[in-house]
Structure formats: C-alpha cells, structure tokens
C-alpha cells in the first residue's frame, strides 16, 4: 500500500479541508513537524504559571478566606474563591476551543494528532475546582514541544509538570525516613511510581515487580511543586539512601533530582518501553490489531535512536500498513467534531471567540452525550482505543444529532452536499455516501448524513 | 406484536455487533427476576442528620444550632424521635403508606480523608478499600455478573456522566435523556444505506434510532396523559421538563418494560454554606424523582425498591457559615412499593460529643453496603456468600434488615 494525500490528512491529520491542501508526501509531513509550531504560535496557550486564574491566585484567595473564617467577611472571601472557580471553568472552555481551532485550521495536522496521542498517554486530570483549565495547559506545555523530539525529554517534562505531580499524588508522597515524615508525619504514595512503570514506560506486562514500584516511589520522593515556582525538588521530602529499580542502583548520599532523572532516562530507553510505546502508536494510528512487522519496525527505530519520536513517526509513515485503504479506527468525539469543522471551512476566530454558553451547547454538552467529557478520561489510562467503545447507541445518537444540527449553526451558508462529500472525504468517499448526499431532501440533512457516515467517522 | 412492544424489543444494546435488532425483532428477553431496583447516587455528601432529624436525641438542638430550631414544627414527626425535613414533605404520604423509609448512621468503609472523589469511588465500587484511580468495576455490575441471562437492556445507566456503580464486564445500556434524535423518514433511509456495510455503525445507529423513537412515543403518550398526571395531586408541584424529572421518567419507562435495574445520580448535596437555603433544592429534586418514578411505574411500583445513597454524611455541628462540612456517618433513603418503609432502620449512636466519630461526625454503626445488600437479597434472592465475596468484598452482611416487604 502506498501513500495518498487524502488518506494522510484523514488518518494522520485532522481531516480534509476546502481551504488547506492535504500533505503531498510523508517527507512533507515530517518536515512540517521539524519546523516551527506555527499554529501553536498563532493560537497560543498559557503556561502553568501564566494561566488565568493561576493556582497562586487561588492559593491567595484561600488564605484570605482562612483569615476571615467565622467573621462577617467570610462570605465575601468565599465569593472571591467562587469567582476564581468560575473563571477557571471559562478558561477551561476557551482553551478547549483553542485546541479545536488549531486542529480545524492547521496545515500540520500530524502535530495535533501527536499531541493528542501523547497527552492521552500521559493523562492528567484536575483534582479540584481551581484547576480544570490546567489540563489543557499541561498538554501544551509539557507534551507538545516534545512530540517530534526524544521520548526521554518528554518523560522528564511531564514528570516535572505540576498537574502530573498533583494528579498522581506525588506532591503528597514523602520518604518514610525523610525529615518531613519525621517532623510532620505522612509517608510514601506509590501512585505515580506504579503508573510510570505500568502505563508510561514498561507497560503492564513489563519486567518489574512490586519491589521496583516501591523503590521507584522512594526514589521519586522530593518531586513536588509550588504555586509560585511550579516544579521544585525538596530534599527534605526525599527518602535517604540509594534505591534499586530494575536492578540498577540510583542515588545515595545527598538527595538530588538528578538521581530521579537518571532513573527516568533508563526507564525511557528500556527495551520493554520501546516495544510498549511502539505497539500503542501502531494501535492508535493504524489498527486495533497491528502487524508484528509494523510494531517491530517502530521498536527498532525507537531503540536505534534513543527514543527519537521523529524517527519513529517517520518510520510509521513509511510503513505500508500505514496506507491500508480500509479505515479501521474511529475518530473519538472531539476529533470527529474538529474534523467536521475543518471540512466545513470554519475559521479559527469563529471558534475561539465563542462564549461559554454556546461552547457548552454546541460542543461540550454534545461531546459528553457522545461519550467524551471535556474534563478528560475517567482514569490515568486515557481514552478507549476500541471503536466499539465509542460507537454505541447513545454515542451514535450524539454523533448523528450533532451532524444534523451544528453545521448550519457554524456556517453562514451550508455547502452543497454533493460538493461537500468530495471536500470532506475526497478519494475516500464511498458509493453509498456519495449517493446519499445527492438524495438528501435538504442541505442540512445531506451534510448531516455525510458527517455521520462511517466514511467520515472512521480514519 | 404492537409497535411499542416491537420497539422496546429493539433495545438490545451494547457491544454486540450482531444484526440490527430492528431487523430481527425477537420476543422480549426474559429477565432473571421481576423485581426492580433503582439506585440513586447522591453526590456531594447528603447531611443525613438534617434530612432525617433525630430531634429526640438530647444533644440534637445544642449540636445543630440554627439548622434545627424548628426541626419538628416545619417538617413531620416520624414517630417520636426523628422528624422529616420539610423539603421532603411531598414524600410524607409515602412514609405513612410504608413506601418510604430511611436507614440512619450508615457509611461506606471510607474514613478520615473525607474527599468527595474518593468517597464516591468507594461508594460506587462497593469495596472496603480505596479502589485506586482506575476503577472499572462497580457493585451493581458485579451483582449482574453473578446472575445468568443478563442482557444489556436489563440495566440502564442513565445520564451524561460515567457511573462507576454500573461499570464492569456485565452488559449495561447507557442513555442520556439529552441524547435526542429527530430524523426525517428520508434521512433515516439514507443513514440505513450508508451504514449498511459497516456492522458496528449499523447496529449502534439502529438502536439509537429505535430508542429515540421509543422516547418520542413515550413523550406523546405523556402529553396525552399529561392532564391526568397534572390532576394527580402528588405531581402538581413537579416541573416536567427539569433534567432530573426527565431522567426519572426515562427510568420509569424502561423499568416498565424489560429493564430491571436503573442507576443515575443526583448532585448538589455539598451544603457547606447556608444549608437551610441550599439543602431544600436537592431534596426537592429527590422528592420529584421518587414521585415521578412512582407515577411512571404504575403497578410496577409495587415490585420496585429505590435506594438513595451518598458518599458520606456531614459534620454533626454546624460550621461557621450556616452549613456543614464533610463528615462520616449519614443516612440512606429507600422507597418503593417493595420496601418496608415508614421506619428508620439502624442503631442510633447519639450526638453527644463522646458519641461522635473523631469528635465531629455522626458515628457510623452499620455499613451502608449492608443496606444495599439486604435490599438486593430481598429483591433478587442473591446468595449471602455471593454478596460478601463477589459483590461487596469485605462486607459482613450482619443481621437481616428486613428492608424488603
């Protein structure tokens, strides 16, 4: 099987567009990845420290409330906290729309897909009302800069991002013999160590045992963050002495974050990690049952380059399996909606300037009916890959309903369904959907049927 | 086979990519039992002490402060020791008829950290330890796994959000009343055509269209029957289009057919602030929900038990802003024609300071899982060992609560 432009845009990008040409070759896709992140610059996102509101804003408001607890000013202080929570929810939706606008208007769709893939691999969630918007910030800040870089660098970036440390309780994990535990109590929390081995690197069938989890958890103590500075390493949280993970001893002597980084690098470059990630990439982009040859090719590329994700991605695009005409995967709800907006030629500003209410009505609410919440997946193992998990009766009611209604709301004039079937599907348009687009009674139904068709829903 | 029956037989949903049930209508699946169970998860931590008020406790007025000033006068006395919160007065006739009751001083095994997320996870997982971040198994689903012949339409998880309590390997249907689908006949025909060669899409969309049409028929039937319903004095205060009422109506419609178990959530119980104003709203929603279920179920109400459970109770004492904070022991409410209502079950531990858990919360005297366990044993005849090993690991079922009539 060989490369085709239309398939490239559908399977490895965010879909076809009437205004943006699909990729001309795998080489062009890779070159775009190595170039500047133009859409990221055009539609920027804040960082952990610059987000509005920041966790520091919330910390100050909480402290102010604590100072007036039990007095007549308490209600006012609580109102200030609630106002920040409200702003956080608004920012959450604005950032959701920014990511959607990037996907709908980029000429480098593979970058968006890779960010989605790796952000899902490193799923974080917000633990409270102060930080729902910081999940998108995490993906943009810790994951996106590394999607065409080295996996060890990405691993280091995500493990030092406050949202990861908070989500997997690392900031509440103290060495049992640390100064912190001795003075103020508290102890080890294995959550991050376990997920690091099981989900992020080696994989659940990887060569590790409970003792490795425990030792890694002890090694990770000291990794923390503050609202003012973001990531910090706190020596007085760290368990004294060396730890042995997968047979290698780390640390001893003065605790240092470098010991943690050394272990993270070794885990990132472990052969089991290479295999685990390669299989996951193949499953995500190509098929639920990828060929052994594809997995081996990616694994070899990963191992041969020290986890260079650009080379792994290039190998994926060079492999014949990448271009099998049959579409085996299904777009998750968000990817479906943004590829629909892209096919309809919706402009970025029309998405980024929407208010909270229409965002909820047009996108966040229907997306939840389709099975995906803007808050993220339910656990650290991310969204489902299996098409059957998404294509349920309720999921289909959501997808069909959205397809029939939203396009007229997001465009000034609907395209002619007979043209739209070509715009949206190109060479992938099947006979049935081409016929149905022509036979529909109204433009809205014609567009709705094209968008609801398996030809469009799959990739 | 009439149209309604035909459509509801098309509700075999879920993962099976078999031919569309619309094209291959079969007889209604024979459910393993005739009894109905509705589980309502009350998210946020319901203050059991304020809902079922133990005014007969000598420490009650002293402990509760403003929250209890007119505990009996504004609500209803429930037999000399407890009183019902005024916002639940629409349910008082059910209490008197033995169709509404409570179990007091109960909790999950969750202790001390008092986090909503952890507390709800534990309540829904039904385990005796925190289930971790990756919970795939809830106790209702594990119950279904122990019963042969379960079909996906046996159980409905209703609402937009994930319900851990119904998650797991046993097939469960999900539907949100927000999912609406109104298609022209031509659009339906053309969709049928584009899905023809894709079994996964074909099965799911056929089911979606069947459910949506069933809902439309239900709605039309309700509109015709709306007048009758509005004349029902119990239903007069209920706004038929609010979200929770739609959920309850959907549940009742399913349960009248081949569905046996339904689960959904009611939010808004986290009353840290000005509780006398903030608690009536979720209580009214709960009351609307139960009354809508009763009205919608008709004769099936007699075979139905509704359990309303929350992740934890709230502090015994009022906090500095007229509310209560996260606590431990609380109340489970139950309703239905199948329950032995009109009573408050459980051992009351007392509200005096030494009787409180950690000097602040109502002391739990019974595992809330025992309430659900005895209800399911009464309704479905489940084995004691199965309950203690598979459904609620680590639970000691304890003496029979006689919750089911």
Explained architecture:
The complex is a heterodimer of chains A (459) and B (405). Chain A has helices at 5-11, 26-34, 38-42, 55-67, 74-105, 109-121, 134-143, 151-159, 162-167, 179-184, 191-200, 210-220, 257-268, 271-285, 292-304, 309-318, 333-343, 348-352, 356-369, 387-390, 393-410, 417-425, 431-439, 443-452, 454-457, and strands at residues 223-226, 230-233, 242-245, 248-251. Chain A is mainly alpha-helical and 459 residues long. In chain A, helix 4 runs antiparallel to helix 5 and helix 21 (393-410) crosses helix 24. The longest helix of chain A has 32 residues, at 74-105. The two termini of chain A are 16 Å apart. In chain B, 35% of the residues lie in helices and 13% in strands. Chain B contains 14 helices and twelve strands. Chain B has helices at 3-8, 48-51, 60-64, 71-74, 92-96, 116-125, 139-145, 185-195, 199-231, 243-256, 275-278, 280-297, 368-380, 384-391, and strands spanning 36-43, 52-53, 76-77, 83-84, 100-107, 155-158, 173-175, 261-267, 304-310, 330-335, 344-345, 366-367. In chain B, strands 1, 5, 6, 7, 8, 9, 10, 11 and 12 form a nine-stranded mixed sheet that branches. In chain B, strand 3 and strand 4 (83-84) form a beta hairpin. The interface between A and B is large, with 47 and 45 residues.
